[in-house]
Amino acid sequence: MMKRDQSLAERTADDILSMLNIEKRFSAGDRLPSENELANELGVSRTTLREAVRLLAAHQVLVTERGRGTFVRQDFHPSDAKLTLESMTPELIDVRDLFEMRLIFEPEAAYYAAQRATDAELERIRHYAELEEELIAKGEDRAEVEMAFHNSIATATHNSFIGELVPLIYRSIDRALRLSGDFPDIIANVVEDNRLLIEFLTRRNAEGARSAMRIHIIHAMDGLDNGVQTKGDYDGGTEEKNHL
What are the entry keywords (predicted)? Predict the structure, then answer.
């Protein structure tokens, strides 16, 4: 496939990513300079800068808070200095490959979290699971909470590599599914799966936690397969935000 030329906004977004990944000027949670200051530094108009910020917000790198400014997301974890907007584009992501990566790493993350999590970390994991259950019941978007749930398990492993890798994989899948559209079957088993996982984590049953996480991911993969088949049979439909 021919590689298309980047727009000025996309190049500006890559320049901002370089500030995060290569220059290390900003870290997770940091506030970016004012719009005027950053536009002048990058040599672009404020309109172009706003579009670049919008692109990075869509890729879950930045977040804009009304009246406060633009911040690097708290859960932003740069994978390496080569990260660019093009490499983050959902069209280039094979969702099932990312699911398989989850199947390799996340059951082990649950295993070590069951052994190593502090009581406070277990309570945080439980809190996110309960909050996600409430959002599912209300039919509301739960992307942020779902990501926080899985990130909190990764953090509870007290393994820095897992703590960096799992959030990166999860954000990639989230972006890809937003592009791919409607996969309602993915959430069918989420509540029961999460409850089972929490039960094993609370009991410090590492083997059980590993199995519960594996089951959860396999359920999600089955939901993805069903969604892909449905999208192949029917053209159109209501676009909804469904997550893993």
Answer: DNA-binding, Transcription, Transcription regulation
Residue of 174, 178, 108 whose CA lies nearest to 147: 174
- The three state secondary structure string of 201-226 is HHCCCHHHHHHHHHHHHHHHHHHHHH
CA distance 195 to 198: 5
Q: How far apart are CA 41 and CA 178, in angstroms?
A: 32
Q: What number is the average pLDDT over the span 204-231?
A: 83
CATH class name, domain 8-87: mainly alpha
**What average pLDDT does the chain have?**
80
Tell me the per-residue pLDDT of 77-132, one tens digit each, with 9 for 90 and over. Answer: 765 334 555 555 554 456 777 888 889 999 999 999 999 999 999 999 999 999 99
Q: Where are the domains of the chain?
A: 8-87, 92-233
Give 58 or 224, the one with higher predicted confidence.
58
Number of neighbours of residue 27 by Cβ within 10 angstroms: 10
CATH of 92-233 among 3.30.1360.120, 3.40.50.150, 1.10.287.3240, 1.20.120.530: 1.20.120.530
Query: When comparing pLDDT for 6 and 211, which is higher?
Result: 211
